[in-house]
Amino acid sequence: MKLQTCLASLVFATATLVQAAPDKWSIADLLPPPTPAGVNSAAVAAPKLDWVQRVKATNDRAQASALSIKLVFDGDSITDGWQTKGKDVWGRHYTQFGAFDFGISGDRTQHVLWRLANGQVDNLKPSLIALMIGTNNLSANTNEQIAEGVAAIVQDYRTRCPDAVVLLQAIFPRGQKADDPLRARIKAINEIIAKLHDGKKIIFIDFGGKFLGADGTLSPEIMPDFLHPSPKGYQIWADAIQPVIDQYIPAAAASATPAK
User: Fold this and answer.
1) What is the pLDDT of residues 9-31, one digit of tens each?
2) Any idea which architecture 2-24+68-255 has in CATH?
3) Residue 23's pLDDT is what?
4) Which residue ranges make up each domain of the chain?
5) 179 is known as an active-site residue
6) Is the pLDDT at 209 greater than 90, yes or no?
7) Is pTM, for the whole model, over 0.70?
8) Which of 26, 77, 105, 219 is catalytic?
């Protein structure tokens, strides 16, 4: 009970700070001005701000089709991978009814919060938001801090997309063997964020076991580097969340194409 109260207080505090973030750290403030016409850009000093530029480009693409986006995916490189190793699975399951992937490789919870504070879902009215984030925080934050970051993102999405349901996915298992130290940490974090499930606007789902063998090991066939899914891993992911998608986006059931 004490942890839940603390978590709620920290989510409120974080949400308040996130609302203020754009005034100090907006995309416009961070990106350098364009090189004037006729000036050789290769000879003009400029910072490398690839991540901010990608956020802006992704936001612009989302705004161009804002009204058609019914399903949002968000997270880190694992979610970003839908556009590479998971591309064929994505095409069979999600393209037909308006899905958009905001995941960016390397992102931590704080980066998703920044993206949300800087227009990521402005004008979007999704029915379902599939979120999975936190594995990149393991090297810098405690389990409790990571859970608080995830909770802050859920709350932010609920504020910005009040009609949407958040499908909060447990952090995937990583490391080849069952006794990998990160496995225990991930399990502990997932146990905390599972408490966010309310069965109405927040649906928590943990299907990490579907990636594992009977002895708890991760196969290179499913996750070649024991972190990022292979095409087969993305199919397992898609199959695991399809029932939830069918429930909240009925058109998905008709458009999803079985794997060959």
Assistant:
1) 444 444 444 444 444 568 888 87
2) 3-Layer(aba) Sandwich (3.40)
3) 47
4) 2-24+68-255
5) no
6) yes
7) yes
8) 77
